[in-house]
Amino acid sequence: MDSGNKQVKRMGGTMIVLAWLCVLGLLTLLFGNLLDWQYNPNQTFSSRTLDNGIAEIRLLQNRQGHYLANGAINGHAVVFLLDTGASTVSIPQNLAQRIGLKEGSVTRSQTANGMISTYRTRLDSVELGAIKLHNISASINPHMQGSEVLLGMSFLRKLELIQRDGTLTLRQQQP
Questions:
Q1: What CA–CA distance (Å, rounded) separates 111 from 86?
Q2: What ranges make up the beta strands (E) of 61-105?
């Protein structure tokens, strides 16, 4: 009878450990998703085409005051960081290779960290919600870390930008 009692206690202890592991796993998942949302609150965002043919999207600022949003380059899903200080769309080299972009001629680019060499390229399409532009100039940057694409002025200059109360509205006239 004593060995049966030990077995029940051992099983009870195992169940408590499993319950705590489940709780910790759920908390990790919950807080991981919360941190992802705080970093990029625009994983899904308001996107529509108005009756007058204007495509419009609304993005929320993240906690650092930046605008990040999910989009696509040549049909491949990417995360954009909107950067009005960047002349062109700037793509990390590792991401460019993964989505099959070709490196063109070498050019010198001025960054916050000084002059660097980048590669010119053209993007067949860049999509941000209902906004889709074609034949966009870009650069492949071998010095960029991470996987976010800087969405620079080669894309943004074709849009109307309105920033108000932590929301950025982008509008594109349809052709």
A1: 9
A2: 68-73, 76-82, 89-92
79 contacts 40 by C-beta, under 8 angstroms: yes
DSSP state of 29: H
Q: In what order do the strands lie in the sheet with 160-164?
A: 46-49, 54-60, 167-173, 160-164
Per the structure, how many domains does the chain have? 2
Amino acid in the structure at residue 171: R
Question: Which amino acid makes up residue 15?
Answer: M
Domain that holds residue 128: 46-173
Give the pLDDT confidence of 70-117 residue by residue, as tens digits.
Answer: 999 999 999 999 998 899 999 999 999 999 999 999 998 887 778 889
Q: What is the pLDDT of residues 20-42, one digit of tens each?
A: 776 676 766 655 555 555 568 78
